[in-house]
Amino acid sequence: MPTIGDIAKKTGFSSMTVSRYFNDPSRVKPQTREIIQHAVEEMNYSPNSVAKSLAKKCTSIIYVYISPDLEVLHPFVQLSVASLGERLGEHGYSFLLSRRLYTDESCDGIIAIGLTLSEENVLASFKKKPLVIFGNNRETANWVDVDNYRGSYDMTRFLLGKGCRRIAYIGVSQDKRYGHERWSAYRDCVNAEGAGYDEALVRMCDNKESFGYKSTKSLLEAGAAPDAIECASDLLAIGCIRALNEAGVSVPAKVLVTGFDGLGYEKIAHPHITTVRQPIYEVGIKLADMMIDILRGNAPAQGTYIVPEIVEHSSTRRA
To answer: pTM of the prediction?
Structure first.
């Protein structure tokens, strides 16, 4: 049976425009209405589902909240929005993108990305609409998340396998769940498989290139003498390499450097950064699928992890 997404593909219009044709045709140009109507007749599409949605007071709109902590031009945001829009559109949903957190928005469901822990608590108390979050808040919401703990643990073990014993760590101090998970995995791995956790080798900061730079300078000035520096993000790793270059510390001859994200920034630095790649596009698809399942009455599992992968570049390849 054809869907709104099929009609959109055939006509070349967006799924939002096709949905508007059924829900509010006065807002669609006459010429556009004619083209869509022709496709509807040709594909023998039945708008009964639209009538049912109207009867149930559905909006066919998903409210997508992206925390203002995230830069709008960051690849993380762009990939998330692109994949969400594609999948929701295939099923006849449009989305309302907002950087402000509302709990009374007119919509069928809420997808939230990049939440702080306090924002998670705000949304968790709102029970009127289906909620899916990017992050593993197991107690309060349906969720999809990258397995940050596993990715960071695997990276620490990767560095240990390279012969490193004094692995410094530059982590994210912001009120974000992923920051704690990546740091705790590093701590657990060096305790279980390395020389043990050493607070003198750890710096926590905001997730910005300049703080990666300052944290690395702090390690060097303190005489920490690491043989590797594991960073909780690629942005931090870029700043780390800048500081090492300025200090005349060769990467990777003297110090190995790694990051986490794998969204393109890892190729800005020289040498290119070995990183844990997050499959963000895949996460966006799964977020949309979970929301659609909920709206269709197919209760999904409480949550699901997507496993990241280590991608090695020259920042850990010694001659």
So the answer is: 0.81
